[in-house]
Fold this protein.
Amino acid sequence: MSFDKAYFDAGITRVGTQCEKWDGMIAAAGDPEMIPMWVADMDFPSAPAIQEALREVLGWGTWGYTISGRKDAEALCAYWARRHGVTIAPDEVLMSPCVVTGLRLAVRALTKPGDGVMINPPVYGPFFGSVRGNERALVESPLAVGEDGRYRIDFADMERRLASREAAAVMFCSPHNPCGRAWTREELAELVALCRKYGAPLICDEIHADFVFEGSHHSILTIEGAEEIAVMLCAASKTFNVAGLQQSSIVCKNPKMLEAIRNEMDAAGVKAGNAFALAATRAAYTACDEWLDGLKAYLVDNRDFAMAYIAEHMPKVKVTPLDATYLMWLDCSALGLEQQALLEKLAAAHVKVNDGLFFGEHGRGFIRLNIGCPRAQLERALAQMKTVLG
Ligand SMILES: Cc1ncc(COP(=O)(O)O)c(C=O)c1O
């Protein structure tokens, strides 16, 4: 099978699959015409090798307790070595249900109640909840944005907050959702140096690692010294459209930190042993490279098309440069609309996007547009957006 433009153009019908993006939206909005450009999964079929692996498990006809661990970790290690040049040993990997589970476990294991945990907003909403929901203090070091719309880390601000002990740990998103940045090695090295200087654990969410469009993803684990302080969270879920299976991994090269997280998992009774999820994830990590390469090429075309379309037809909307992820961060502040009015206009045009405020107060005036869909759907959504934002 060829994973070319025609394959991804065909997409897949998701209505009636209990998916949040379509079924959840239609139920909430009561508008069957609404185009879902929100929840961060894609309107493409998962790779054939994954479907085959799931059919095989289905064929077992019985699904008792499942072995989870070594084989799964080995598949992950081989994948990260092959795709991202990272050396990980199976003993450095823990299986976890979701990446957000991993974020929360890491916060609980590596900090104490009352400690400050620093994040860089605007950032994925559950970062806020992972800190606040665990009786830790939320410390915000906002990303700075340049004239060109590109976001960068305000290292001086981060250092001030670490030096004063306002923050005891850092939770970081790499590549960054929703700002679309693929961080450079230099930026990551500076971040690692800062965390080491102040003895702060660095919890790094790399769920979007496979969607770096130019150059390569630099895992935090490839940065010198990171092995002392970093925890890396990853999953096949975003990349291969298997988020509904709920499987992720926690990787840590510091044995003491890994042990602390393992203890926290045991205390909370967190296990990852879903036979379907594990089989799908192993297949994703071993037999889907070609599918992924085709997908990335398709997404780059979608990105370039959307950027050009918005520049031409919605000149007041500023598109944040998208190095990575299939989530486009649009600055609509020049339209002068209140956030609610902005979303209502889009809803009236039958387009569902993510509210910028999901990513914190720094997302006011913004929306996030998911371009992980067939081109025809993207074209339709943009044409309808134009009628209210153009
Ligand atoms: C940065 C980031 N982390 C985590 C998640 C969710 O991962 P999971 O469903 O495995 O909890 C998302 C989903 O959009 C995300 O963007």
The pocket of pyridoxal-5'-phosphate is lined by residues 40, 98-100, 124, 173, 177, 205, 207, 235, 237, 243, 248 (CB under 6 Å).
